Amino acid sequence: MTDLDSPVIGHLLGYIEQIATPEEILSFTISADEQARIDALLSRNADDELTAEERIELDHYVQMERRVILMKAKARAELKK
């Protein structure tokens, strides 16, 4: 289990889904600095140059992206009701 798979993170994201409106969830984006960091990690990964710490960091970004995608899918479904 990774840090992002922990019950506490799941509980926190569930709480965010409850208090944020579907529109707020759908409008969530990462900052330009965060995107630049992800792009740098992806580039280093493609070149097989990631350190162990960077690999963990990239994995966390990927896991969080998956969770955000699920949250946005639920928000879209809620808006269609």
Distance between the termini: 34 Å
Structural class: mainly alpha
Query: Which parts are unreliable, with pLDDT below 50 for 5 consecutive residues or more?
Result: none
Secondary-structure element order, as H and E?
Answer: HHHH
Mean pLDDT: 91
Helix content: over 70%
Helical element count? Answer: 4
Shape: elongated
Strand-residue fraction? Answer: under 5%
Largest beta-sheet details: none
Number of strands: 0
C-alpha Rg (nearest Å): 15 Å
The total domain count is 1
How does this model look, in words?
Helix 3 crosses helix 4. 1% of the residues are buried. It is elongated and about 45 Å long. The termini are far apart. It has one domain. Helices cover 78% and strands 0% of the residues. By secondary structure, the chain is an all-alpha fold. The chain has four helices and no strands. The mean pLDDT is 91.
List keywords for this structure.
mainly alpha; 0% strand
Describe how the helices and strands are arranged.
Blueprint: H1 7-19, H2 22-27, H3 32-46, H4 52-80
Summarize the structure.
This protein has 81 residues and is mostly helical.
